[in-house]
Predict the structure of Alanine racemase.
Amino acid sequence: MLTAHAVIDLAALRHNLARVRDYAPESQVLAVIKANGYGHGALAVAEALSTADAFAVARLEEALKLRKGGIEHPILLLEGVFDPGELGVAAAHGCEIGVHSMSQLEALERAHLHSPVTVWLKIDSGMHRLGVAPEQAAEFYQRLQKTPSVKNVVLMTHFASADEPETGQTEAQLALFNQCTQTWQKDLRSLANSAAIIENPEAQKDWVRPGVMLYGASPFADKDAHELGLKPAMTLKTRVIAVRDLKAGGSVGYGATWQATEDTRLVVVAMGYGDGYPRHAPSGTPVMINGKRYPIVGRVSMDMITVDIGDADIKEGDQVILWGDNPTVDEIAMLCGTIGYELLCNITTRVVYHYIDSENPAEVR
Ligand SMILES: Cc1ncc(COP(=O)(O)O)c(C=O)c1O
């Protein structure tokens, strides 16, 4: 019987891609599968999302793993190559390349690639992390057009606050991007991450770049995945390894941070920060056992979590759901002062991955 394991439902991934297409019917989909497919297993995600138009990763090594696994779609390196020596490898493996800096532009100008590459020119419309300043964009664009190693240019930018529409920052970034790129009408454009796909249809343009919504998590703090029509793809599970009675006044775990106010029963479950469950999850964070939610109590340790079950009839071996449909990863993240993205990415190698297809149960791998 499995202890800590992550069940990934390939049908949920496909469902979420279909939702992206519902939200952005006119756009091509660049599915963002960096950081091991947001912790879901990049290769399995790419295979499940084979109807996506292209994939995006952050680093060349991530793209090479996908190629080795047989993925033939276009793959974009969102941040481009980090040194000029990587250009030839990236091009030889059919990668498309982000360009956000002068050194990357110059490397492309000097390169002698066997076949020219598609370049995604990243314009900094206000996030101020990566990207070419709007006033430099024309120079970059013109030089890229003249570079023999460049096949064509896609114009892109990234939003800083698409998940906080009330700030107005997305509209300001969109306006600046539109103004800066208005003379280059023939070129394709890409702006929208998950939050903008849902919240800013006018930002969808030619290519949308969904990440978190593909995995069935919400990009917004105040809207949950179900409300957005998304299905959580990962269920993080384990089982009960001990049932203990605790007297009123007794405490549990490191630092004795929680004390029973009355006689109660605790279960110990095989899951901890050594599996990627957040150590800072406070007492009260829910888990699901036999269809009912119970609060974790005391500190999360490396391998174990304690749960107050009151007088419920729960036995050793019973299954525990840490996140999935209920509670969602976003709910747990909120209680821990973080975002679902981080929890999904933090699953460690000790957790066993199990892939299912809830629409085709025979297809389990
Ligand atoms: C450039 C870029 N585009 C798109 C995404 C996808 O964002 P999200 O997961 O919020 O949809 C990311 C993720 O960080 C990104 O860095």
The chain has eleven helices and 18 strands. The mean pLDDT is 97.
